[in-house]
Amino acid sequence: MPSTPTQSADKFDTSRANEYARQSRIALAGYDACHDLAACMLAATLGPLRGAKVLVVGAGGTAQEIIAMAALEPDWRFTAVDPSAPMLEAATQQLQANDLLGRTDVHLGHVEDLPAQASFDAATLIGVLHHLNGDDAKRQILRSVQARLKPGAPLIVAGNHYAYASQPLLLQAWGQRWRQQGASAEEVKAKLGKILQGADPPHSEAAVQALLHEAGFGEATRFFSSLFWGAWLACKTR
């Protein structure tokens, strides 16, 4: 059966939250660049809008998207949502260390838990979709975000796409990335086995675009790519 968002959050326990900052920067070559460019893409789309309110879905872990956006736009405010308490705690610590808690409302839970009348100027959904099993769960979260965006508002979606087993060369390169960072052959094998379990990424860039269209977003512009990972910006159309 397809997993629920709550079940997907269960794998992000305290152990995983504690290692997330290091692991994510190895697993995604260009982690910080992706978040920096996401901030640039939103700023370029919103233009001189002051005091923008940005919804950050799946904010747990590093809170890097908020840190990057806040550095570029000092008057933006953020609403951070994540269903994993350990991951949200890790993000809160990063926000506190960067003096950003005063600009961020932190919510433990799901997008659906936010008031239906919430109205945001932009949103990010980074590293989330491939952890949701099945297209129905992916559509649900995209539609929940869309419902809380102003007309024409931009959304950043970033995460793995392609069925992992369909891209053996990318899998091997991903293993070499870990070896490059000092992992042993046994560790690389274990990590390759882990990536094939417990995740269900969209199987192509076209599949990402289709999910966005179905949720009420227009044509997506891809602005970052790294092995399995892609990042896109699309705007609300209805």
UniProtKB/TrEMBL annotation:
It comes from the Bacteria. Pfam families: Methyltransf_12 (PF08242). Signal peptide: none annotated. GO terms for molecular function: methyltransferase activity. GO terms for biological process: methylation. Keywords: Methyltransferase, Transferase. Gene3D superfamilies: Vaccinia Virus protein VP39. Residues 60-154 form the Methyltransferase type domain. This is Class I SAM-dependent methyltransferase.
